[in-house]
Amino acid sequence: MLFNYLYPLADQFAILNVFKYLTFRTGGAVITALVLSFLIGPVLIRKLSVYQAGGQPIRHDGPESHLLTKKGTPTMGGFMILLALAMATLLWADLSNGYVWVALFVTISYGSIGFMDDYLKVIRHNPNGLSARLKLVMQSAIAILAVYWIMKMLPAPLTTTLAVPFLKNILLDLGWYFIGFAVLVMVGSSNAVNLTDGLDGLAIVPVMIATGVFALISYLVGNAVFANYLQIHNVPGSGELAVFCGALVGGGLGFLWFNAPPAKVFMGDTGSLSLGGALGVVSIITKHELVLAIVGGLFVLETVSVIVQVVSFKLTGRRIFRMAPLHHHFEKKGWAEPTIVIRFWIIATILALAGLSTLKLR
After folding, report:
1. Could you list the residue range(s) of the whole structural domain that residue 80 is in?
2. 237 part of a folded domain
3. Are 321 and 181 in contact (CB under 8 A)?
4. Which H/E stretch holds residue 161?
5. Residue 19 lies in a domain
6. Distance in angstroms (rounded) separating the CA atoms of residues 321 and 342
7. How is residue 239 annotated by DSSP?
8. Which residue, 79, 180, 238, 351, is the most exposed by fewest CB within 10 angstroms?
9. pLDDT (tens digit, 9 = 90+) per residue, 76-93?
10. 259-293 per-position pLDDT tens digit
11. Is 201 among the domain residues?
């Protein structure tokens, strides 16, 4: 909004030229979302505590300590991130850019699905919430609309193609199968973050790390000069997603202030589904879908641990892990919660650096 209203006046007021620079507006989005989170957080937590008698339902088959340490903590804190993200993005981004709108559409839509699920659990006291099948159908429908929207905006050579990390100028044309692949990326990313969100601060920091990486990727992919130098595929206009990613990082930092151990609020499905969806849609627009699997490798590990556990139990009647997802396995082994969380943050950082290396190693 500021860009659209103030930058045209730069000929009269030279200082307004700063709104031309993505780096300036991305920094503004980070700070704005952070401040908004700090302002919204205390009020939201009080309101959630009033309406959510008993807080988020705690799994009775989960680690026993959670019944003591996490019982009564309100959920739906992801609403704080979504509100700060949306307001900061609308304030600092170029609103004529279609990629910004499709990213907001997916993020808010997935957050709405998560909100419905959280609402049924904590307000209606339905322990199952939305059925897994219904959530997948709704997520897939939103993803299909978003992918079609993205394909209409992408330049012709990139519309249905898949870029391969470490290989320059290689594009695999998937044809109409690209829609199915992109939907899988978006829905898979959303649910992978959801599975990771099980300990105080465990999901939000890796999300911010991955989002920071994709803020840089968006900036580079959207700049023809940098894209040519790094031998990555240029997607004109995608640089504006750096502002969106910056707003997400700022909102995430503000949420972490209240989610740090011991958490005053959980993000719930409202936050986890939306944040995973945001990562998925940005990776598709920037043609770095496979890089997301590296940068977000922690989410992949958590998801794989659940799949392996279920398959093993159904086929052999034995469990590979003491409990899935993976972070609960280490809790069962006696690791302290802060130890698990910090070590997983370290892993997320290493994987993010590995993902960044794909930009130059080609």
Report:
1. 26-290
2. yes
3. no
4. strand 161-163
5. no
6. 20
7. G
8. 180
9. 999 999 999 999 999 999
10. 988 889 999 999 999 999 999 999 999 999 999 99
11. yes
